[in-house]
Amino acid sequence: MSTVTTAEHETTASLDEATKAALHRLLRAVADTKLLLGYHYGEWTFGTPVLEAAVANCSLAQSELGHLRLLDGILKKHFGDDPDALLADRAPEAFANVRYLDQDLPGWTGCVAMTAVVDFAITGLLDALRNSAFRPVRQSIDKMLDEERYHVHHGRGWLRTWAARGDEERAALGAQVGVALAHVAEWFGPTGEADDQALVAAGIKTRTNSDILQTVQAEMSSLAADIGLSLPEAETVDFGAWTPANRRVGSGGPEAEILSHLRGDRNDLFKLG
Amino acid sequence: MTDPTKPCPFCNSSSTVRLADFSTSLMVSLHYCERCKTTFEAIKWGDTSTPLDLPGFLTDRSSRPPLH
Lengths: 273, 68
Hints:
The complex is a heterodimer.
Chain A: H1 17-43, H2 51-79, H3 83-89, H4 107-128, H5 135-163, H6 167-188, H7 194-201, H8 209-227, H9 256-263
Helix pairs in contact in A: 1-2, 1-4, 1-7, 2-5, 4-5, 4-6, 4-8, 6-8
Chain B: E1 16-20, E2 28-33, E3 39-43
Antiparallel strand pairs in B: 1-2, 2-3
């Protein structure tokens, strides 16, 4: 484990503009992903194979939305964001969540893949911020990781359970995990990307996104081999149109119906403020 | 699965099993005592004794340098 050898930053005032902007974009992307994770876990508090999974998803939704609030606090205090306006006013294409979360999940298999891959990948990123030179982030990470360890444990447990259920479930799960891994690879972005290099150079992250992705892929490959899951070959991503603003190749964003739910459009009458 | 790290708070037996990682609230897990047949909850945050199925890099919780 590397230690902080660069200067620590209490605020963004001591960061150069490029690093500050890179950190801003990264934290927004993590916050967007946690918003959508919370939404999907919330959606899957019913329809699970067993009641225990529904209870767990309630807790996972609470975790993700709690982490979103932590990140919102940092974004508001240190970057001048208005979290409510970010949700209410942004176009779908401006959301920088992992693409996997843009649409309703394709059944319970999709939910298991979300926990085991997408949630896990974001946990890998959080782990790389654990010794961050940006103190407000560093002070929030251990709380999040304490909860995320249970998410990862839960996701791996369901992956094992579902893969053992039968050939059909195992094949569907392998395909869905492959989709999730591809979307996570897209989110992490190209090797040597400028934002990522700036953040690592400043000690705000201790590992590059490519390094984190390799760990995620290796862990998933190892687990898949252990449980007899066949994963599709990872396709090479053409990052030509990728930007760190929305972390996608090409267009996309959460579908309108999901954003409408998140914004509470049907409950305008009851909104406070 | 048997979880001897969580003794029963009622009879102190270590013959307990973990029923669920998530229970009535986010911070507790659900357990069952096989001796006195009682269900109980245990706080899990900060718990390093409960074995979890985790990749190696997530098990390291101790090497973080202290804040200045």
